[in-house]
Design goal:
With 114 residues, chain A is mainly beta. Chain A has no helices and 12 strands. In chain A, strands 2, 5, 6, 10, 11 and 12 form a 6-stranded mixed β-sheet that branches. A 4-stranded antiparallel β-sheet of chain A has the order 3-9-8-7, with no helix packed on it. Classes of the chains: A mainly beta (114), B mainly beta (115).
Chain lengths: 114, 115
């Protein structure tokens, strides 16, 4: 069975600082990995995904994530935080066969300090 | 752009009522999903459907049923609403090609309150 752990339910960073949101996964087969963002009162929007091509994945709004098989991690980073990055972020894993079901982590709420 | 719409943004119902949550996608996707989102628990899968009239239970199907009579529409039904079903409900769809890493596209959510 697949699972996702997001360390830190709340993260606060200063505007302009590095953003690091952590995600570790467990999967019995090579996974597909996703980061989604949810702005207040909205649905989820895809930030980026890893599908076994390049291990460093670039997404929208300057975010990127690196797949590290040895560490079973897929941490999300952004070099310089913007006020508009304040949102909740979800990491998700899908096995690379089957019906595209996703297993989500519990989410990390990112607060940006002016 | 893929668009997933949900029939209501906010809904208030009474305990024991039958509740229908509707979801429509406009991109001919094979797969559709219903999740509930609760603080600290993330998104949990209730049911999903990979074809018309086909459905499978997710992780928390108790107290819910679903219907998919047309490819574009996926309904979530609460047969007898209870207060512990107060939550945000999110619908999603995906293309449906197995093994291709397709992402899910989400609707805006329905915040259901059961009194």
């Amino acid at each position: 069975a697949q699972s996702v752990t997001q360390l830190g339910s709340h993260v606060s960073v200063s505007e302009g600082a590095l953003v690091l949101l952590r995600c570790n996964y467990s999967s019995s087969v090579p996974p597909y990995l996703f980061w989604y963002v949810q702005y207040p009162n909205q649905g989820l929007q895809l930030l980026l995904k890893y599908t076994s091509a390049a291990t460093l994945v670039k997404g929208i709004n300057g975010f990127e994530a690196e797949f590290k098989k040895s560490e079973t991690s897929f941490h999300l980073t952004e070099p310089s935080a913007h006020m508009s990055d304040a949102a909740e972020y979800f990491c998700a894993v899908s096995e690379n066969f089957g019906n595209e079901k996703l297993t989500f982590g519990t989410g990390t709420r990112l607060t940006i300090i002016p | 752009d893929v668009k997933v719409t949900q029939s209501s943004r906010y809904l208030v119902k009474r305990t024991g009522e039958k509740v229908f949550l509707e979801c429509v996608q406009d991109m001919d996707h094979e797969n559709m999903f219903w999740y509930r989102q609760d603080p600290g628990l993330g998104l949990r899968l209730i049911y999903f459907s990979y074809d018309v009239k086909m459905k499978e239970k997710g992780d928390i199907p108790e107290g819910y049923s679903v219907s998919r009579e047309k490819k574009e529409r996926f309904s979530l039904i609460l047969e007898s609403a209870s207060t512990n079903q107060t939550s945000m409900y999110l619908c999603a769809s995906s293309l449906g090609l197995s093994g291709s890493g397709n992402e899910q596209f989400f609707g805006p959510g329905t915040r259901l309150t059961v009194l």
